[in-house]
Amino acid sequence: MFKAAGRDGGSGGSGGRTTKAVGDEAEARALAYLQAQGLALVARNYRLAGGPRQRGAEIDLICRERDGTLVFVEVRARRGSGHGGAAASVGFAKQQRIVRAAQHFLLRFDRLPPCRFDVVAIDGGQVSWLRGAFDA
């Protein structure tokens, strides 16, 4: 059976590493960047199960700013900036899944903290932090 390179760890330009390994590396790099900016990690890879008619959802990183703002972070990495780059790959459907997972995460709070949705885009090794990248 033929499998497309890049989705199963084939030679899609990632040096033979699996897609998961590449994603884990990008998340680790994004987390280190955010921590250097003063954010504290609250949760990593927060998952919400899907159902028969709804896809599951995941938030790559949940961090807290010094002022208490809860930051839900989507991490995207691309080898280059073609096709709009990493940030442009966070489309409306993905945003809605992140918002749904964030709503579920927030159920644990008696009083809701201020929240924000950010994207950390890694294009060809260049890290960009887009604060307030989209709204709920």
Tell me about this structure.
Residues 7-16 have a biased composition (Gly residues). Belongs to the UPF0102 family. InterPro entries: Restrct_endonuc-II-like, tRNA_endonuc-like_dom_sf, UPF0102_YraN-like. The protein has 136 residues and is an alpha+beta fold. Helix content is 24%, strand content 32%. The protein has a 5-stranded mixed beta sheet with strand order 1-2-3-4-5. Helix 2 links the parallel strand 3 (70-78) and strand 4. The model is unreliable at 1-12 (pLDDT under 50).
Q: CATH class, please?
A: Alpha Beta
- Estimate the mean pLDDT confidence: 86
How is the CATH topology named?
A: Trna Endonuclease, Chain: A, domain 1
Radius of gyration equals: 16 Å
Total of helices = 2
How widely separated are the two ends?
41 Å
The biggest sheet amounts to:
5 strands, mixed
Low-pLDDT runs: 1-12
Instruction: Give the second-level CATH assignment, the architecture.
Output: 3-Layer(aba) Sandwich
Shape: globular
Helical percent range?
Answer: 10-25%
**Beta-strand level of the residues, as a percent range?**
25-35%
Secondary-structure-derived class: alpha+beta
Please count the beta strands (DSSP E, at least 2 residues each): 5
What is the number of domains?
1
